[in-house]
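Sample A.
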Amino acid sequence: MNAATVTVDPRMKARRIAVIRAQGRRRLRVLAVVLGLVLAAAAAWGVSRTPLLDVDRITITGTDPADGTEILDSSNVSVGLPMLFLDVDEAQRSVESLPWVRSAQVWRDWPATVRIAVEPRVPAAAVPASEGRTALIDANGYAIGWGSESTAVPHVSVPFSGQLGEIHTATDGPLAVVAAMPEDLRAWVRSVTLETDHDEIGLALVGGATVVLGEPVLIDDKISALRAVLATADLACVTTIDVTMPDIATVTRHRPC
């Protein structure tokens, strides 16, 4: 018995050949795309490693040049780092973690410069701290650094036992008084005091006299009343100036005068 002969339709054969060729072309296209991506990645990696795109210069603005080293150490930015791999967001967060920094910005200035702009916190008062130190606090009560008794800001006699970067919560009233004091009055004031039991604020003046301000209300009126007394009254032998009622300021003198 002879085997049957199967005849393939030429059109079917041509169709099968076309499908195989199309599959081959698709594979070539995929291979070309993959190869292109690999080459692009290799080129990017090579470019990122070239010294032409390294950090060559770092500028710091907004603060004292003496603070530059502390800012650089905190930012972890240094000359020679690849610009492409620099994490400016992390550098900014690190700089803003410094207790005396209110805000910071870090950005690339292509091709090879990194710029850091800092807004520092401004010391508003000095307070006694632990271990005989003096802490500087800003207008919001943040402890921003260590100073000395001779620091040229008003002194607030409310001890601080915390660490830098923490808030001195007991100074809201005294800081409001400090903020309201004009320069001519600051020259009279040795320190701002707080009687915590009654939340009463006072001032210790140059020469030994004290000022009773009372509770931290009507502060502007009390400051105005005190300035009027200092400008017009005979201050000989004065021990106490009471402006808790700013419309009726009273002056006490020691006897004999």
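Sample B.
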Amino acid sequence: MPAMADQPVDGALGFQPAATQIAERIHSFHSILLVIITLIVILVMALLLYVILRHNEKANPVPSKFSHNTTIEIAWTLAPVIILMFVAFFSFRELYYQDVFPDVDEVEVVNIKAQGNQWNWTYTYTDVIVDDYPMEFVSNPIHRGFEGEPDGTFEAPRNLAVDLPLVVPVDTVVRVQTAASDVIHSFAVPAFGVKVDAVPGRLNELWFRVEETGTYFGQCSELCGKDHAFMPIEIHVVSQSDYEAWLERAQGSVLDAREFLASLSEGAQPVQLASAQ
């Protein structure tokens, strides 16, 4: 299993490599916007330069006194409207794709509830019943140097690793419903192109389908108190067989499941680290 497939790196300017179709579509939309914005900046700078050079006091000692130009006024009104309509078309298309749950057999969907707490996450596999209750565990951030730190975490990314990560199968639709026990949090994983608020008293929902196995990282993206910066999300995407093996162990002991997950990563090399694209 690839290790650390998507995580921040120093000096990066672009997005993390996309791990889902949602993220790929967002990247494409960004590329379109970048072209539009660049052309607008060039036009505005060119107009400013023209005005500075052509209409300064030395070059134009007798200024024009007209105050209206119907043609120009229509042009600078219609041009932004057309540009915004063009942007809105692509924007609404991507929002619709993210918001509408894909048409797949519900039996094949992995359903997870992610509850934000100050300052950790509680994950509930709502379809996995253990002793009459859905399987649930708390995912706490790992703080280096503290006693009780799990073995091997010295190699984990700073402020991103957790003791009990979320585990999902590759090429499978995952539905995540978010809520919060105290204040507003936000469940965000950049490589997946997903971000949704976790609000006390209500359920929000997102979905994703990851196309490559690996370890992916996110963070709470809503200011939620003094330890907001230390509320990471770690997701391990594994093969279907490894997921079933992990799930079987997790129903008995989350510690056994953690050891099994660690064994999958032994000898794995980092691949395609997030970087400027």
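B remarks: Residues 21-54 form the longest helix (34 residues). The domain at 107-265 is CATH 2.60.40.420 (Immunoglobulin-like).
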